[in-house]
Design a protein that fits this description.
The protein has 345 residues and is α+β, with helices and mostly antiparallel strands. Helices cover 23% and strands 37% of the residues. It starts with a strand and ends with a strand.
Length: 345
Amino acid sequence: MSTKLNVNQISINYREKTAVEGVSFTLEAGRIGCLLGPSGCGKTTILRAISGFEPVRKGNIVLGDRSVSDSNFTMPSQERRVGMVFQDFALYPHLTVEKNVQFGLNKWSKHDRKERAASLLKLVKLEDFSQRYPHELSGGQQQRVALIRAMAPKPDILLMDEPFSSMDTELRHTLAAEVRSILKQENITTLLVTHDQSEAFAMADDIGVMENSRLVQWGSAKELYFEPKNPFVAKFIGKSTLLKASYKGNGMVESPLGLTKVKYMTPITPISLMQVRPQDVVISLDSDIKATITSALYLGHEYLYTLKLTDDQTLLCVASSNSNYKENDQVGIKLISSNLISYGV
């Protein structure tokens, strides 16, 4: 039975330093959530508070219908029915794969322990590896064993701390998609933390972006990408440039790219920052707006060009891999997006 998670205005201190300040979000039962942000922003501290390893100074944490943490009470970790997948997997080297999976099932009968381990090993396609030891497995196989060991006792919620960080990029993204499929089959409410945007997008239904101990936006990957609430989210999610612009009224701003209609997400002010993503700009030889190519990065299926505008601001632009522009070439450019966002500053 999956469980809903409510985090309500929690603040957490390390000695005198504030690690988390006023964070709130709701993760519905059976959904996969992610806290995404740079190192030191507080995301792992929140995970530790949910698991019972850190007390909260303000606010409370509710799992299902149980308040497990508030400013006066911290339920012991072993009573919370929380599963944890650690960054280094933390498998027991002296136990077989089967015994690792059964480790948290001491109160189960021998028959039930064996049956539960067998079903989970089959789920992750490791049934033929049950008698091997962790050092005999690949990194991806160890990750799957760590996952099902945490799932074995049927926790109310599963927490994952940077679960793919020790793997190379290609394997990390492949495993993220596989793990999502497994968690959905088991219908387990899951919260992971990561600094890797593509990992978050591959895994999560709901993503919270954190900056300097605060949660600045909670939503779907699509919402974060197309409707970032502030310049930090706009820069952190995907590639983008924030161009200086001036507000001209009626939802129009003027920048080196000309007069443009935008969608405001923050209060309108005379001076603005306009978010421009690489796909919002095309090279157009008949355009009066000129830019100089300062770098050309070949990505196989396309080029990513860095362009310097006449006022020395820079932006990114993608073009077909058949294009042959070089550094220092001057080109015409134009905006093609009708969904640009501007932020008052």
